[in-house]
Amino acid sequence: MIGIMSDSHDNLDAIRKAVKIFNKEEIDVVIHAGDLISPFTALEFRKLDPELVAIYGNNDGEKEGLKAAYEEICILEDFKEISVEGWKFSIIHGSNQAIVDSLAKCGKYDVVIRGHTHKMEILNGETMIINPGEVCGYVSGQKTVVLLDTDDLSFEVIYI
């Protein structure tokens, strides 16, 4: 099982709730699709039991501070490719829709995980595209994360 989140934007209370959900479920890895924002958020992500895989988002301007704060938790980059239970994932913040579309169409990935729009959206096609929405709730008013079952890529949207 994979936990997917994005756009936490310093909302410590929402991050705590998401971490609690992921620790309660049988999650192997948590993927954060960018916009962590401040280095101090690492204090909450250190409480995660599962492994964290995270990338930078367009609002992550303090990259050196984030890199230092998260270095014991995960390696932050602009883009990542990972495999989980035989499934290939690409992780991108997604501020450029053409790149997201190209990743989905290239045939290399089973799932493209993206953020940026703050809009929860899951598209099933040859390549699944998952945008878990926003953890912060600042834009949509909804705080969401996604649980993805690695047996069959079924999913559940969790409102926090």
UniProtKB/TrEMBL annotation:
<comment type="similarity">
    <text>Belongs to the metallophosphoesterase superfamily. YfcE family.</text>
</comment>
<keyword id="KW-0479">Metal-binding</keyword>
<dbReference type="InterPro" id="IPR024654">
    <property type="entry name" value="Calcineurin-like_PHP_lpxH"/>
</dbReference>
<dbReference type="GO" id="GO:0016787">
    <property type="term" value="F:hydrolase activity"/>
</dbReference>
<feature type="domain" description="Calcineurin-like phosphoesterase">
    <location>
        <begin position="2"/>
        <end position="152"/>
    </location>
</feature>
<dbReference type="InterPro" id="IPR041802">
    <property type="entry name" value="MPP_YfcE"/>
</dbReference>
<dbReference type="InterPro" id="IPR000979">
    <property type="entry name" value="Phosphodiesterase_MJ0936/Vps29"/>
</dbReference>
<dbReference type="InterPro" id="IPR053193">
    <property type="entry name" value="MetalloPDE_YfcE-like"/>
</dbReference>
<dbReference type="InterPro" id="IPR029052">
    <property type="entry name" value="Metallo-depent_PP-like"/>
</dbReference>
<protein>
    <recommendedName>
        <fullName>Phosphoesterase</fullName>
        <ecNumber>3.1.4.-</ecNumber>
    </recommendedName>
</protein>
<dbReference type="Pfam" id="PF12850">
    <property type="entry name" value="Metallophos_2"/>
</dbReference>
<dbReference type="GO" id="GO:0046872">
    <property type="term" value="F:metal ion binding"/>
</dbReference>
